[in-house]
Amino acid sequence: MADRRATVERNTAETQVRVELNLDGTGRVEVATGVGFYDHMLTAFARHGRFDLVVKATGDLHIDEHHTMEDIALALGQAVDQALGGREGIVRMGDALVPLDEALVQAVIDISGRPFAAVSLDFIGERMGEAPTQMVSHVLRSFATTAKITLHVRQLAGANDHHIAEATMKALGRALDAAVALDPRIAGQVPSTKETLTT
């Protein structure tokens, strides 16, 4: 099996981000973004997706959290894209339905090579710790763009913003884990009638 790891650095005038990802990990996580709740979200994503993930970031948090959260999502998506290589042998599609107390969120992924995200989340408040609730949807869309995946996320139930956000990231991790899983029946083959998932 090919080594499905990637390291991505994204350095701008607004942020400095380093992401290390192993798709075939065990859920080991080391995350420091400067935004406590985002650390929690990324940890939930990796732990429940069984990915090994390191995220180190500094950003212009004196302005707000937007650039930091967005750029980490872009770098993480890019790491997924790079780690997948030519996509040979992957299941390609995955879905997960995750409850957290009263919240219930579904994530569905197609590693299609076509960036698209449809996100339907209904938060009540404006913030969760330092993280703006509106950034959850933006993070998902940014991630889908650079990961080159089709992503659908929908909230089926929920009254607590923390629970909704956490269930979302757990569902994203589990759905991605299912989609990147290797199917021995198609080893060496790309699961597409086009015979490519990268263009």
Sketch the topology as an H/E string, one letter per element: EEEHEHEEEEEHEH
Radius of gyration: 16 Å
What about the largest sheet? Answer: 4 strands, mixed
- Classify the helix fraction into a percent range: 25-40%
Please report the total strand number as a whole number. Answer: 10
Question: How confident is the prediction overall: mean pLDDT?
Answer: 96
Order of strands in the sheet with most strands: 1-2-4-3
> Could you say which overall geometry the principal axes of the C-alpha atoms support?
globular
CATH topology (fold) name: Ribosomal Protein S5, domain 2
Low-pLDDT windows of residues: none
Q: What's the CATH architecture?
A: 2-Layer Sandwich
Structural class: alpha+beta
> Ends: how far apart?
23 Å
Give the helix tally. Answer: 4
Characterize the structure shown.
The protein has helices at residues 36-49, 66-84, 134-147, 161-180, and strands spanning 5-11, 15-22, 29-32, 52-59, 93-100, 103-110, 116-120, 127-128, 131-132, 150-157. The protein is an alpha+beta fold and 199 residues long. The chain has one domain (5-186): Ribosomal Protein S5, domain 2. A four-stranded mixed beta sheet has the order 1-2-4-3, with helices on one face. α1 runs parallel beside α4 (161-180) and α2 runs parallel beside α3 (134-147). It is globular and about 45 Å long.
Briefly summarize what is shown.
With 199 residues, the chain is of the alpha+beta class.
